[in-house]
Amino acid sequence: MASPAPRYRQIETFLLDRIHRGAYPLHHRIPPEEQLARDFGVSRMTANKAIQNLVRQGYLVRQPGLGTFVTERKAESVLDEVLNIAAEVRGRGNAYRNEVLCREEIEADDEVALRLGVRLGSRVFHTLIVHRENEVPIQLEERYVNPKWAPDYLDTDFSRHTPNEVLVAACPISDVEHVVEAVPLDPQTATWLETTPGAPCLRMTRRTWSNEHLVSYARLIHPGERYKLRSSMRNLR
Q1: What is the SS3 assignment for 126-157?
Q2: What is the pLDDT of residues 32-60, one digit of tens each?
Q3: Cβ contact 186:193 at 8 Å
Q4: pLDDT of 76 higher than 70
Q5: Residue 82: pLDDT over 80
Q6: Pairing assessment for the beta strands 227-230 and 213-223 based on DSSP bridges
Q7: Does residue 87 sit in helix, strand or coil?
Q8: Is 180:145 a contact under the CB 8 Å cutoff?
Q9: Cα 142 to Cα 117: distance, rounded to the nearest angstrom
Q10: Phi and psi angles of residue 15, each rounded to the nearest 5 degrees, phi first
């Protein structure tokens, strides 16, 4: 016989059930720790653990002196991994779609040549794609690919396969470099992401290698109010 779930998990399940059913809508104040502890016959520490877990997962937000409230959960990516954004969105139980704004073969300018490790003027593949979660834009992806390592990249049906899926299939990723900055949105990018010019955003610059081959250079822009990046470190001594 399976052992019962820990009591804090039971509280988490209780709260999540009400959030998902709409009994606790957006901005609703959940019961305080003291009440949850009484209702479930546990200590305040146990109730606090359940609430803290849901805060970390992005379902709740604490407001000192006011209580704990249901919040709009931001899309989230793991910073120290390269994941397929379509799988991330669907893993959250949401609908994924993208729009291809541009797909072309171009000559590498100074920046692209330097970042992609090719000669100035080399022919490279370029795509510009908006990724959507439940029809809300969550990422603008501008990507440059060395055709030598992914020659069929521009022939991809991106409505079925994301750039990440295509590149991983062609060249399994061995190394990744990430640089993350907070920058304001320019007017054109704000239009593509359906938000306000000057609004804060997260811009991630990513380069990926397959063994010794530098395959791809991408700039990924996320609206700050809709997205967050997470990283974890283990076995620190």
Answers
A1: EEEEEEEECCEEEEEEEEEECCCCCCCHHHCC
A2: 999 999 999 999 999 999 998 888 777 88
A3: no
A4: no
A5: no
A6: unpaired
A7: helix
A8: no
A9: 17
A10: -70, -45
Please check whether residue 33 is in contact with residue 48, taking contact to mean a CB–CB distance below 8 angstroms.
yes
Report how far residue 123's alpha carbon sits from residue 118's, in angstroms, rounded to the nearest whole number. Answer: 9
Q: Which amino acid is at 13?
A: T
The domain spans of the chain are 7-70, 75-230
- The residue count of the chain comes to 237
Q: Are 134 and 110 in contact (CB under 8 A)?
A: no
136-145 and 123-133 strand pairing: antiparallel
* Topology given in CATH for the domain delimited by 75-230: Chorismate lyase (3.40.1410)
CATH topology assigned to domain 7-70 = Arc Repressor Mutant, subunit A (1.10.10)
Give the H/E segment covering residue 168. Answer: helix 163-170
In this prediction the pTM is 0.65
Nearest CA-CA partner of 126 in 222, 223, 219: 219
Rounded to 5 degrees, φ, ψ at 111 are: -65, -50
Residue 24, amino acid: Y
* 8 A C-beta contact, residue 183 and residue 203: yes
Distant-in-sequence, close-in-space partners of 132: CB < 8 Å, separation ≥ 6: 96, 97, 98, 99, 138
